[in-house]
Amino acid sequence: MSLEERVANIESDVEHIRSDVAEVKGDNKSLRGEVHEFRIEFHTFRTEVTKEFGVVREEIAESRTETAKEFGLVRKEIAESKTETAKEFGLLRASIERMKLWGVVAIFGAALATSGVLPPMFSAFWHAVKSL
Asked: Which pLDDT belongs to residue 56?
């Protein structure tokens, strides 16, 4: 193969290389546009996701606050219920003690009344207990 033939082959190959480089440059420009569009879409998506997570965080915080408030009300109601129950049990105990006293006095008074002996001091005691 002569030098001229080699040069002709090299020139032909260089033309193919130039054609391929031009094609690669065109593809590169096309990809740059697509990458730019992707970046814009991705940035928009990130902004929207950040915004939505912010809304979710606010909802969770509001829910926590509301739950804490409701638990506070429940605790208050339970405390009030305990206080009221203790008060009612105190009244019930006092009532039972009065009933026991009335029972003892009634039995004692009945025993004295049936025996016919009712000294004046027991009569005064009987009237004092009756007024309870």
From this structure: 94
Alpha-carbon gap, residue 129 to 102, rounded angstroms: 8
| Axis crossing angle, helix 120-130 with helix 3-115, rounded to the nearest 10 | 150
The two structure tokens encoding residue 104: 């003892």
φ, ψ of residue 86 in degrees (nearest 5)? -60, -40
Q: Which residues contact 112 (CB under 8 A, 6 or more apart)?
A: 118, 122
SS3 readout for the chain = CCHHHHHHHHHHHHHHHHHHHHHHHHHHHHHHHHHHHHHHHHHHHHHHHHHHHHHHHHHHHHHHHHHHHHHHHHHHHHHHHHHHHHHHHHHHHHHHHHHHHHHHHHHHHHHHHHHCCCCHHHHHHHHHHHCC
Region of residue 4 (phi > 0: left; psi between -120 and 50: alpha; otherwise: beta): alpha
pLDDT < 70 regions, the chain: 109-132
Q: What is the pLDDT of residue 13?
A: 85
Domain that holds residue 73: 3-130
Task: Report how many domains make up the chain.
Answer: 1
